[in-house]
Amino acid sequence: MLPPQTAETESLTPDESVELTVCESESGLRIDAFLASHFRFYSRTQLRESIRDARVLVDGARVKASFHIRPGQRVAIRLPDRPRERPIPEAIPIDVLFEDDYLAAINKRPGMVVHPARGHWSGTLTGALTHHFDTLSQIGGAARPGIVHRLDRDTSGVIVVAKCDRAHLGLTAQFEARSTEKEYLAITAGVPDRDRDVIERPIGVHPYQREKMAIRAEHTTSRDARTFYEVQERFARFALLRVAPRTGRTHQIRVHLEHIGCPVLCDRLYSGRSRITAGELAGGRESVDPVLLDRQALHAWRLRIRHPITGAELAFEAPLPLDMRAVLDTLRGIRSE
Fold first, then answer.
1. Are residues 100 and 187 in the same domain?
2. What's the mean pLDDT in 315-334?
3. Does 127 fall in a domain?
4. Quick one: which of 87, 93, 149, 244 could link to 228 by a disulfide (CB 3.0–4.6 Å)?
């Protein structure tokens, strides 16, 4: 019989380290099942992620979720954040570009996580939406009210949300059919050789780094990906591009631009740097100038859809945010000197 969860484990805080000893009645259990029996307020998925991330050790060694435990073994776990059923409404200001009874278009600021996740339970877009709107669709689940598609945390710009399930279904069908038109503006570290081109390279999970994606052909995780770009402005070592992804792979624009030698500026994962100053834009190696940009210079500028209820064509545009404008103004000033 599996041991019940104790009051002691219920009172533990996230990231606290806990050590348990396997008893005779638990012999032969998978490690994920063993943990689930002791920490029932966590989902099996969360516990498997902890095992994968080396937050779980058996006798001091990493194991897989399928590992079968033996009596006397010592299992150490650093607990993940506790799961949340739904976002807590928060009075966070949001920039509403469009709203009617069925949907809304929001200009998401950089640095805002779209929906709650480990390490980001507060300050999310869904928390702001739940506070701002009386009704939101529930098809995506209680943790993602209204969310039809998403943007990376540090990508700013247009995101559309559904206020009812009927609108959600209609919008989801458009994104799945790729009938929406998405356009981004990106400042790149490097200048493309061509004024415009289409990048067609498959994308899959990175072979070594869990956070990243990579160009990978003939891998089980690989999917075809296609991205159009057009140069809007050229500078000595940088460029402003208009980018239109024709498919919707994770990190697609970021991976494809890195592939042609022009990663998105200040993209922590793919460019090798996460911030830049005016002096560094001018070619200096180090600078005490204020930081102009400390996130990836990628902005979801325009989104075209059909209204899921009326069928009318809608186009939403979000102005370029201040940090990217500051970089471009600085580059233009350097160019004119």
1. no
2. 97
3. yes
4. 244
